[in-house]
Amino acid sequence: DQQVKQNSPSLSVQEGRISILNCDYTNSMFDYFLWYKKYPAEGPTFLISISSIKDKNEDGRFTVFLNKSAKHLSLHIVPSQPGDSAVYFCAASAGLVSGAGSYQLTFGKGTKLSVIP
Amino acid sequence: DTGVSQDPRHKITKRGQNVTFRCDPISEHNRLYWYRQTLGQGPEFLTYFQNEAQLEKSRLLSDRFSAERPKGSFSTLEIQRTEQGDSAMYLCASRFANTGELFFGEGSRLTVL
Questions:
Q1: Is residue B1 predicted with pLDDT exceeding 60?
Q2: Chain A residue with minimum CA distance to B109
Q3: pLDDT, tens digit (0-9, with 9 covering 90-100), for B11-55
Q4: Are A30 and A52 in contact (CB under 8 A)?
């Protein structure tokens, strides 16, 4: 039973345009959400996060939106650059806001983003 | 470099052999995690340490797997009697106290022939 779902295995975007990566979750106990970027043969690199008490968090070209009622979050990259080409993982954690639990992350299967020059 | 380091980066072994991976977390991080990633999947949680105490283990962690963090610093993950299904990338991550982000190492790729 996948608790974090990224339904698009791949996405191609022209350089300079917006990239929108989507993620859905089923566990209502999740209260902290993160996006990681992964290049081949490397470990995941933290990109941006959002707590369940917010609905938007912005960091430079990256913005994450959280819709708790729909159990949906999205990552917007504007403008997209060729160096953004990588696999993006959505991850969620339960208990971080409340202070309970191990804060282990549950990951989606990833979306491969290709930014075309 | 003060990030999470893992050793070895690649390991090829024959079925039935034992393998051990080492992880050195970021020095001030007291929480350490092991994950496994197979092709086309996201990282899957295996186990978690707070200082030297192993506080949580996934059902994925069969009895052939054992992890230790003897002095609350580096950690080892041992797989005994390896099987072809153990072939995967083993990722170590660490975090400090109640911060949200896990910082991952570059992973140890295991190939079981």
A1: no
A2: A41
A3: 999 999 999 999 999 988 889 999 999 988 999 999 999 999 998
A4: yes
| Cβ within 8 Å, pair B98-A108 | no
Distance from CA of B102 to the nearest CA of A (A): 7
What are the CA-CA distances from residue B57 to residues A13, A23, A37, A114 (Å)?
Answer: 40, 26, 25, 36
> pLDDT per residue over B52-99, tens digit each?
999 889 988 889 999 999 988 899 999 999 999 999 999 999 998 767
- Size of the A and B interface in Cβ pairs below 8 Å: 60
- How many residues appear in chain B? 113
Interface test mutation site (partner A, options B104, B108, B110, max chain A beta carbons within 10 A): B104
Amino acid at site B104: F
Minimum-distance CB partner of B42 among A43, A45, A89: A89
- Give me the sign of the Cα torsion angle A90, A96, A98, A102: positive
- Which among A44, A99, A105 is the nearest to B98, CB-wise? A99
**Helix and strand element counts for chain B (H, E):** 0, 11
